[in-house]
Amino acid sequence: MRSDRYFSILFVLLLLNHLWAGAFRDLYEWWYLLSKPALLVSIIVYFLWQCRNFPHQLRNWLALGFVFSLAGDVLLMFQDKELFFLLGLAAFMLAHVAYILAFRLWVYDNHEVPLLKRHPWMAFALMLYGVGFFQLIEGGLGAMKIAVIAYMAVILLMALMALNRHRKVSRRGFALVLMGALAFLLSDSILAYNKFEEPVPFGGIWIMTTYAFAQWAIMMGGIIELRGIARRG
Fold first, then answer.
1. Residue 108, pLDDT above cutoff 70
2. 215-228 b/e with 16+ CB inside 10 Å = b?
3. What is the pTM of this model?
4. Number of compact structural domains in the chain
5. Residues 118, 123, 128, 129: what is their CA dihedral angle, to the nearest 10 degrees?
6. Are 218 and 100 in contact (CB under 8 A)?
7. Cα–Cα distance for residue pair 198/52, rounded to 1 Å
């Protein structure tokens, strides 16, 4: 739809604005503090407006995930303080739980065997990535080890649930949500490596670009599927 294209252009402009504000944070702290939450605020407003006539649990769980993500964004802006980092981590864990519950609902009534039941090695591949990445950053985790393990388990499960929707939903909706889930995993991986191991060149840009794409893709996939549900009546 035309409105989706217009919103996508606006969202890219908001992202560029935030990246610019981050580059000059020392000079424009207030701009930076406003520009980051603006990304999720725009997603929440557009998603709820587009889905206002779709009273479906899928809409509610996705909206809750976006709200928890907004809370996580605000808290992680002050992640230099350990408490704020842990609270931000908790907010994003709740966001991923909401996405997981949304993806469970995101299955049409058909007889297709779930993807992970047909190809369990795909789950093994994601788990292998999680174990390997944890070993890479384990030395710098310190007292946060348990919290990071719990978070990694939840986000990996979120990615698996997105993958398991193969042939259960529309192709475009499946592709967008899966790309969003994997981009979320990539963004958090860069953030964790940057925080616990060593600085990543242009790390802030990579983290925010992949994160913004992840939220945009999950939202657009959600809108596509909710429109499809509404058409089927």
1. no
2. bbbbbbbbbbbbbe
3. 0.92
4. 1
5. 130
6. no
7. 44
